[in-house]
Write a structure and sequence with these properties.
The chain is mainly α. The chain has a single domain, classed as ABC transporter involved in vitamin B12 uptake, BtuC (Orthogonal Bundle), CATH 1.10.3470. It has eleven helices and two strands; from the N terminus they run ααααββααααααα. The chain has a two-stranded antiparallel ribbon with strand order 1-2. Helix 2 packs parallel to helix 4 and helix 9 packs parallel to helix 11. The chain is globular.
Length: 295
């Protein structure tokens, strides 16, 4: 049996850092999924492809327009949000009165179409994206070196996640969004365009995936399969936190990233399945998830 107290601090904290970085992406992506499911009741299987679109948008902006990281972190999420807006307006809106299975199947097919198109036109190999000069280097913490860009990813993800939670839970706009999902007729009586609000909500969830894609581009190589490799884990995070729970997605994403990193130190063979084991245990005890509401 492996003694965790005999593990070198550099190895332990290094893996915990990697886990926290993965947790930042889990939190951002699951947050977007939770916003879309909580407000629209759509299981958005195309979310991984939207994450990939954010990374490729950053890469294409740099390659063809010379727009670097700081411009891309603003422009790419807007572009991905527009794609999400068009998807909701042209396709998902037609399924509003249909069984939720149709929305799941539609978004699953869209994910394969988008990934296949990028693979066909841009190739399947990964493409490097440079870290911005202002975020290069590392901090010496004594027991380990913390890369500046990794610290930025964690900090920025926390700010975006908390900002989204505050907007939805503590502002008038958020109250309108929540009300529109529970009683759209009453919200229409206040003169609010509910279909437009739904479309903008989906676009916002898609933009969150785009933000995660831009943040991931300098860490992981930009490739058409990057979303497909991650989305299954993110869905597990959403299920554990509770489908539609904003705070559940944030806390569970970071916590499971740390747990995954710790598992890589203590028992590496289990690191790829620990999240799914936890999902199974949580569903046995609390089917709605840790922060979800029972139907």
């Amino acid at each position: 049996m492996l003694d965790i107290f005999n593990i070198p601090p550099q190895a332990l904290f290094g893996q915990l850092l990697l886990g926290l970085i993965n947790g930042a992406f889990y939190a951002l992506l699951s947050l977007g999924l939770a916003v879309i499911f909580g407000m629209l009741n759509v299981v958005n299987m195309v979310h991984g492809a939207l994450y990939m679109l954010g990374a490729f948008a950053a890469w294409l902006l740099l390659q063809y327009l010379g727009i670097g990281y700081w411009g891309a972190i603003v422009i790419a999420p807007i572009l991905v949000g527009l794609v999400g807006f068009l998807i909701e307006r042209s396709m998902l809106q037609r399924l509003v009165d249909s069984d939720h299975l149709y929305g799941l199947l539609l978004t699953f097919g869209l994910a394969w179409i988008i990934e296949g198109a990028f693979r066909h036109y841009l190739g399947g190999s990964g493409k490097p994206y440079p870290i911005p000069v202002s975020l290069t280097g590392s901090y010496d913490l004594g027991f380990m070196f913390l890369p500046v860009y990794r610290a930025w990813v964690i900090l920025f993800s926390v700010v975006v996640c908390l900002g989204t939670w505050l907007m939805i839970e503590k502002t008038r706009l958020g109250s309108y969004l929540r009300a529109a999902t529970e009683n759209p007729t009453a919200v229409r009586n206040f003169g609010i365009n509910v279909p437009l609000m739904v479309s903008l909500t989906y676009a916002f969830g898609a933009a969150l995936a785009g933000v995660a894609g831009v943040l991931a581009a300098p860490i992981y190589q930009v490739s058409p399969s990057m979303g497909a490799n991650l989305i299954i884990v993110v869905f597990a995070v959403v299920v554990i936190g509770g489908m539609g729970s904003i705070i559940g997605s944030i806390l569970t994403g970071f916590a499971l990233g740390l747990l995954e990193g710790l598992t890589k130190v203590v028992y590496p063979e289990a690191s790829n399945m620990v999240i799914f084991v936890i999902m199974g245990l949580v569903l046995l005890v609390k089917p709605a998830g840790l922060f979800g509401k029972e139907a």
